[in-house]
Amino acid sequence: HVQLVESGGGSVQAGGSLRLSCVHSGYWHSNYCMGWVRQAPGKEREGVVVIADDGTTRYANSVKGRFTISKDNAKNTLYLQMDSLKPEDTAMYYCVARCWSKLEDILVDVDFGYWGQGTQVTVS
Question: How many CA atoms lie within 13 A of 109 on its CB side?
């Protein structure tokens, strides 16, 4: 059983920054991809960014150049640095792991094996 626990959400003014963290525990495979998915009220889930075990990344066009994903394997932690935040970034952000689709398709398919409980990001 895998657990993903997010932290770091909050409220920020437009143009500001936040850093989300996600700690994984349990029966973990080092080849799992990890990423972030967000969902705004009344909207479908949106794949934001994913990172493969070899460090390859894919970003949604809406966040390219503003968000940066990274991970610290020694700390079992995934990060999402969010800069130049916009009101349209407001959403619940979920840490996800174990891609069920190819990396080039996963942000559209949003098909992951493990999900965290989510952390709210509000940009005003």
Answer: 14
Helix (H) or strand (E) holding 111: none
Distance CA 91, CA 1 (A): 27
CB 85 within 8 A of CB 14: yes
pLDDT tens digits for the chain (124 residues)?
A: 899 999 999 999 999 999 999 999 999 888 899 999 999 999 999 999 999 999 999 999 999 999 999 999 999 999 999 999 999 999 999 999 999 999 899 999 999 999 999 999 999 9
Residue recorded with tokens 């809406």: 62
Extract the tokens encoding 94.
């979920």
Angle ∠(95,99,79) on CA atoms, nearest 5: 30
